[in-house]
């Protein structure tokens, strides 16, 4: 049977914004990700407990309007400054912070939705599953790690419908479909959440 999705299910959404930004830029030459649509379809009519986006801030502060826009649609932001080294190398990594938050919130959740295609999150997925939490991954399939797709209870491929999940994208794509892993739970409901009116882009 398909994985369980029902109206009383408590859901936490964890968004790796840098992964989405770079995936969209590389695959579609488009950095404008529609986070409102992604949040809507990730929650899928269930009870949203927390939605967290992990973001990088710069000295110029040009991204603050983006952070505010995320918060207006119910996505909290976790911000970290971009590190610049004397060698010219720049570093921005939120993997550990995201994992810690997901583990800390897990006792209050029935399902964790990980919005990232980064294969480094496989141990996190397995840790949460071992504690009875359903883990769903939402990402651009073409740039997602195979091991992450296989580890997740459910993988939602944003690449199946880029027109919906990228702002200003015209590809003639078809509706996105979830490809669930088999699991002995109740059949999912198919009623989607109402679409937020505002599209939020990166």
| Straight-line N-to-C gap | 36 Å
Structural category: alpha/beta
What does the oligomeric state look like here?
single chain
CA-based shape? globular
Q: Fill in the CATH topology.
A: Rossmann fold
Mean pLDDT: 83
Poorly predicted regions: 172-198
Roughly how many Å is the radius of gyration? 16 Å
Number of domains: 1
Strand content: 15-25%
CATH architectural name:
3-Layer(aba) Sandwich
Strand order of the largest sheet: 3-2-1-6-7-8-9
* Major sheet summary line: 7 strands, mixed
Helix and strand element order: EHHEHEEEHEHEHEHE
Present the secondary structure layout.
Elements: E1 10-16, H1 17-28, H2 35-43, E2 47-57, H3 64-72, E3 76-81, E4 83-84, E5 90-91, H4 95-105, E6 111-115, H5 122-130, E7 134-139, H6 146-151, E8 154-157, H7 162-165, E9 178-180
Parallel strand pairs: 1-2, 1-6, 2-3, 6-7, 7-8
Antiparallel strand pairs: 4-5, 8-9
Describe the structure.
This protein is an alpha/beta fold and 202 residues long. The chain has one domain (10-180): 3-Layer(aba) Sandwich (Rossmann fold), CATH 3.40.50.1010. 30% of the residues lie in helices and 23% in strands. It has 7 helices and 9 strands. A 7-stranded mixed beta sheet has the order 3-2-1-6-7-8-9, sandwiched between helices. A two-stranded antiparallel ribbon has the order 4-5. The longest helix is centred in the N-terminal third of the chain and has 12 residues, at 17-28. The N and C termini lie far apart (36 Å).
